[in-house]
C-alpha cells in the first residue's frame, strides 16, 4: 500500500482551440507547480497546419513545487481536466491563479471527474 507521500494524483490536461504558443504557456504555467510527463524543453507544435490539434499532458498534483503566476494568452483556450475529484479540483484552483477561468461543463463518475474550462489571459493589459 502506498503512503501519502508516495501516492500519485494524476490529472490529464487536454488543450484544444488554441495556438501552439498558448498551449505552451498553459503547460509551462502548470509545470511551475506540478511535475508532468512532458520534458522541460518540449514545446507543443502543429503537426499539420490547418487541422485541429489537441495537446495532452499528465500532471501529478500530489506534490506541488511552486505557486503559479498570472500568464498572458493571445486567445482563449479550452482545457479539459480528467482525474480524481481532489486532483481535478486542485488543478482547477492552480489554473485560476494563472488565468481567468470559467467552467463550461463537468461529468462525474464514482472515482473521477472530467471538467471543461475556458481559459483567458490572467494578465491584464
Model description:
- The chain is α+β, with helices and mostly antiparallel strands and 125 residues long.
- The protein is built from two helices and six strands.
- The chain has helices spanning 20-31, 85-98, and strands at 10-16, 35-36, 55-60, 77-84, 99-108, 112-121.
- The chain has a six-stranded antiparallel beta sheet, covered by helices on one side.
- A hairpin with a 3-residue loop joins strand 5 and strand 6.
- It is globular, with a radius of gyration of 14 Å.
- It starts with 9 loop residues before the first strand and ends with a strand.
What characteristics describe this protein?
2 helices, alpha+beta, 6 strands, 125 residues, globular, six-stranded antiparallel sheet
Give a brief description.
This protein has 125 residues and is of the alpha+beta class. The chain is 21% helix and 34% strand.
Structural class: alpha+beta
Please trace the helix and strand order, writing H or E for each element: EHEEEHEE
Q: Helix coverage percent of residues?
A: 10-25%
Note the total helix count.
2
Number of E strands: 6
Overall average residue pLDDT: 86
Chain-wise SSE layout:
Elements: E1 10-16, H1 20-31, E2 35-36, E3 55-60, E4 77-84, H2 85-98, E5 99-108, E6 112-121
Antiparallel strand pairs: 1-3, 1-4, 2-3, 4-6, 5-6
Amino acid at each position: 500500500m502506498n503512503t501519502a507521500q508516495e501516492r500519485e494524483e494524476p490529472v490529464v490536461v487536454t488543450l484544444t482551440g488554441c495556438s501552439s504558443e498558448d498551449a505552451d504557456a498553459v503547460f509551462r504555467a502548470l509545470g511551475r507547480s506540478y511535475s508532468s510527463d512532458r520534458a522541460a524543453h518540449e514545446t507543443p507544435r502543429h503537426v499539420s497546419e490547418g487541422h485541429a490539434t489537441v495537446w495532452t499532458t499528465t500532471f501529478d498534483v500530489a506534490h506541488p513545487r511552486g505557486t503559479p503566476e498570472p500568464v498572458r494568452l493571445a486567445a482563449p483556450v479550452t482545457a479539459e481536466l480528467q482525474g480524481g475529484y481532489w486532483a481535478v479540483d486542485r488543478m482547477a484552483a492552480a489554473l485560476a491563479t494563472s488565468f481567468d477561468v470559467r467552467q463550461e461543463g463537468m461529468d462525474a463518475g464514482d472515482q473521477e471527474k472530467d471538467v471543461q474550462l475556458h481559459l483567458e489571459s490572467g494578465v491584464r493589459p
